[in-house]
Design a protein that fits this description.
- The protein is mainly alpha-helical.
- The chain has two domains: 1-108, RNA polymerase sigma factor, region 2, helix turn helix motif (Rna Polymerase Sigma Factor, Chain: A, Orthogonal Bundle), CATH 1.10.1740; 115-227, Arc Repressor Mutant, subunit A (Orthogonal Bundle), CATH 1.10.10.
- The chain is built from nine helices and no strands.
- Helix 2 crosses helix 4, helix 2 packs across helix 6 (148-159) and helix 7 packs across helix 8 (175-201).
Amino acid sequence: MSVPTPQVQNAAIADEAELIGRAVQKDERAVRALIQRYNRRLYRLARSVVRDDGEAEDVVQEAYVRAFTNLASFRGEAGLGTWLSRIVLNEALGRLRRRRPVVDWGVVERAAEIIPFPNANVPIDPERTMAQRQIQSMLERAIDDLPDAFRTVLVARVIEDMTIEETAALLDLRPETVKTRLHRARALLREALDKQIGSVLTEAFPFDGRRCERVADAVIARLNLSA
């Protein structure tokens, strides 16, 4: 992973400060730009808590409304992303508390989600796409099943690529605790996937459907066996 140079970081900070200033003045383009910048992170954090796609979207929308309504009060002690993330987590946890009032909130810390497969510059292969979706679905279920205290750490640290320090600040944890929970989250994830992976291995490297037909057609053509 490349590390931004100080010049790039300073330019990004200046750009964000300008967008914030314009957003405070109700500039629609600035608001849209900030939403686009943080949409994925906030959705993933919300989804990792409520574990429902539709409700996660509602959480993010509500958080944005609160954030932009009170943006003038943002003092910049933490980054805007961290500030927005805390609003999202508070909103998501509040909904979860209303849904499950018996939860011990001294234990719950928030969570993680959705690891998309990279977009390769290759023709779409229905067989491979189906296999990837199966694996992705399996991975998402395994992440959903992680204990709350580990799930958010995994999302913030691994999926959203936040630093240990950023994750610790976001979740009010010590950096050592973040490291410990991340290690445990990965171990639990591996354990869960190990139990399911056997049936999927038999479907690895699919070579059916269009791919199979394409090779067969090529062989037939080269052997001059076409009818």
